[in-house]
Design brief:
The chain has a 6-stranded mixed sheet, with no helix packed on it. Strands 12-13-17-16 form a 4-stranded antiparallel sheet, with no helix packed on it. 17% of the residues are buried. The radius of gyration is 57 Å and the shape is rod-shaped. Helix 2 packs antiparallel against helix 3. It is α+β, with helices and mostly antiparallel strands and 339 residues long. Strand 10 and strand 11 form a beta hairpin. The protein has 3 domains: 119 residues, Sandwich (Immunoglobulin-like); 87 residues, Immunoglobulins (Immunoglobulin-like); 71 residues. The chain has 3 helices and 19 strands. The structure holds 2-acetamido-2-deoxy-beta-D-glucopyranose (NAG) (4 copies).
């Protein structure tokens, strides 16, 4: 045998031995999907059981459908960057110290929605392969709005923006009973995230605490928001309401009292004023009549005065005319004309 032949024989022996030993061992990845929220760091657990060293193995993680499909290509004790899919640059690692224990788990930093899917782990020389599912979720807290608040009933709207995968929306009353709500509206945004909204109409007969619950079973996530709908007929609920109840009635009574007294006072004033006005009017009437009578009498007096004066003048003139003869007659005519 040539030395080179002997060497290749030995390596073949070692290889056969390794395969035989490895045959006992199984590559096991988690059968449960691994769930992470976007932005989290996550470990995809895979290991050889019973544990045998994978320190000198080529460990390859792939995700079918990607191009290149290599997520992490570990050979000769290091990551082969050249083959790695660019979207995983600087985001993956193997636990090099754990390889000797057969632990070939891969960690992904800051997972994205696009990281979700099925991953495969290969141990080439051992001819082992296993797969694992990664589910990535995005969640957000719902917001409840009062759409309408008429007498007797309230329409509530619950909206939750930015979920992945698509969640479901349920409404619950204070006792945790499901309420029948309208259909859930779902919109998928350009970022692949879902916005869901749902409306429910509730009676205000009894005050109640309603819950909007948004849940996604695949990522085992629930977010909920409560809203308190007070009873219409007797709204004594919060401490501020109680304060209002204590303060408002007395204030109302006082204000009412003030208003009533004001009304009564103004009424009285008005009455007095009208009476005064009437009195004044009457008085004025009396004055005017007096005045008028005064005027009348004065007029008459003046007239009579004038008359008497005229008469006396006439008499005097007549006397003179009778003594003056013709001149008197002419004067008499002139005087008449002048009148
Ligand atoms: C593999 O190593 C990781 C990182 O140290 C650890 O979290 C995980 O539990 C290990 N798995 C096994 C099976 O030991
Ligand atoms: C409504 O119910 C939730 C739990 O179901 C509770 O945490 C919350 O305090 C309640 N709100 C009011 C105003 O009672
Ligand atoms: C879901 O999460 C809750 C706590 O958030 C946990 O108790 C439960 O075990 C989880 N279920 C699964 C199937 O992961
Ligand atoms: C509806 O309106 C009444 C009266 O304005 C108010 O007391 C009550 O808080 C409102 N309900 C909700 C749910 O906003």
């Amino acid at each position: 045998m040539l030395p080179s032949d002997r060497l290749s024989f030995i390596t073949l022996l070692i290889l056969t031995f390794k395969v035989c030993v490895a045959e006992q061992s199984e590559l096991i990845c988690s059968h449960q999907p691994i769930v992470a929220l976007a932005g989290d760091d996550v470990i995809l657990p895979c290991y050889l059981d019973p544990p045998i060293s994978a320190s000198f193995e080529t460990v390859v993680w792939t995700k079918p459908g990607l191009d290149p499909e290599y997520i992490h290509f570990h050979q000769d004790g290091r990551l082969m960057f050249e083959t790695q899919n660019p979207s995983y640059f600087y985001r993956t690692r193997l636990f090099v110290d754990e390889l000797q224990n057969g632990n070939v788990s891969m960690k992904i930093f800051k997972v994205k929605i696009s990281d979700a899917g099925k991953y495969f782990c290969f141990l080439r020389s051992m001819l082992k392969e296993a797969s694992i599912q990664l589910t990535v979720g995005v969640v957000s807290t719902p917001i409840i709005e009062v759409v309408s608040n008429n007498s007797g009933r309230v329409v509530l709207q619950c909206e939750s923006k930015g979920w992945y995968p698509e969640p479901e929306v349920v409404w619950l009353d204070g006792e945790g009973n499901l309420l029948s709500a309208g259909p859930t509206e779902t919109v998928r945004g350009p970022d692949d995230l879902y916005t869901v909204s749902s409306r429910v109409t509730v009676e205000k007969r009894h005050s109640n605490n309603f819950t909007c619950r948004v849940q996604q079973k695949d990522i085992n996530q629930t977010r909920e928001t409560h809203i308190y709908v007070p009873d219409d007929s007797f709204p004594v609920q919060s401490s501020s309401d109680r304060i209002r109840i204590i303060i408002i009635p007395p204030v109302c009574i006082i204000v009412l009292f003030i208003i009533i007294t004001l009304i009564i006072c103004t009424k009285r004033n008005q009455k007095n004023e009208t009476e005064q006005e009437e009195d004044e009017g009457q008085q004025q009437d009396v004055k005017t009549t007096e005045f008028l009578t005064q005027i009348n009498t004065e007029d008459e007096r003046q007239k009579t005065l004038e008359n008497t004066e005229r008469c006396s003048v006439q008499r005097r003139r007549l006397k003179r005319s009778s003594s003056d003869g013709e001149r008197g007659g002419r004067r008499k005519e002139e005087w008449r004309k002048s009148l």
